[in-house]
Recover the amino acids of this structure.
């Protein structure tokens, strides 16, 4: 076994995993602030990538302007989703709200290609395609930058939940009625969480779009994001980062050795992670275990 080849697989896999975590953070953020699993995050990532591409290529905005514009548009899109799709469902069983997010995922996944087409489009955000060399080990620049962005975002989200607004978001997640009773605007808190998740989706979409191009397949990142969120714990942002690294390394190493024999195995790894986590540790590595007395 080539040690350098294995190290290259592990390093690049860990960086890819951090980019998975970048998508998963949007799911964890909404769950941590509203106790709702957002199955629309994959489609929002795809939409964010198309919006950034449109700003850069169709409107002609420079990258330094296209990216903030994309983040702003998805921020307000997230606000709109909460206001017009989710707020009317306040008081409904939580499973109905989760089904709403799944329906939103399907709707966006169908609408976005209808607007922009299905052909892959390159998204150039100033990251060179040339790999970095660390001795005999090659590292993808886009993965390295994406991993750094994911770690930075993790720190910022952790700091947010230590602020006054972050405490309100956690209170809303614990109990809507109790939050209303002490004067917290539940609607505003949930709207903010969806808005920030939209901006995170645009950022993730731009980075992933620069790696594999912009097309409908970006929405399939939902599977990896859900696997990362479940493994790390649905209410743990730090757990999502560690779980992302674990999933990325597993995918990269296993697929390198199994794909020549059995074909694509990356999706199988993600599905197995979801199934085994639910069976063995339902609350994930760092999730909060909820004990209900009957």
């Amino acid at each position: 076994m080539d040690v350098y080849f294995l190290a290259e697989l592990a390093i690049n896999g860990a960086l890819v995993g951090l980019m998975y975590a970048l998508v998963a953070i949007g799911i964890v953020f909404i769950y941590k602030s509203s106790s709702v699993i957002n199955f629309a995050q994959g489609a929002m990532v795809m939409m964010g990538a198309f919006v950034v591409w449109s700003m850069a290529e169709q409107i002609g905005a420079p990258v330094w302007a296209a990216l903030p514009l994309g983040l702003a548009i998805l921020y307000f899109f997230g606000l709109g989703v909460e206001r017009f799709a989710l707020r009317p469902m306040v008081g409904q069983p939580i499973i109905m709200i989760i089904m709403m997010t799944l329906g939103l995922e399907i709707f966006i996944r169908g609408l976005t290609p209808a607007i922009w087409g299905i052909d892959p489009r390159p998204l150039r955000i100033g990251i060179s395609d040339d790999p970095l060399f660390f001795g005999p080990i090659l590292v993808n620049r886009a993965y390295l930058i994406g991993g750094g962005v994911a770690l930075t975002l993790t720190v910022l989200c952790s700091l947010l939940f230590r602020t006054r607004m972050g405490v309100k978001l956690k209170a809303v997640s614990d109990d809507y009625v109790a939050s209303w009773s002490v004067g917290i605007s539940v609607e505003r808190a949930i709207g903010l969480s969806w808005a920030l998740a939209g901006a995170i989706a645009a950022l993730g979409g731009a980075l992933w779009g620069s790696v594999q191009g912009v097309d409908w397949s970006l929405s399939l990142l939902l599977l990896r994001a859900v696997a990362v969120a479940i493994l790390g714990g649905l209410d743990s942002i730090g757990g999502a980062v560690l779980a992302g690294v674990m999933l990325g390394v597993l995918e990269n190493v296993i697929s390198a050795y199994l794909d020549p024999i059995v074909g694509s195995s990356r999706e199988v790894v993600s599905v197995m992670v979801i199934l085994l986590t639910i069976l063995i540790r339902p609350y994930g590595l760092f999730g909060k275990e909820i004990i209900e007395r009957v």
About this structure: The chain has one domain: 3-280. The two ends are 54 Å apart (CA to CA).
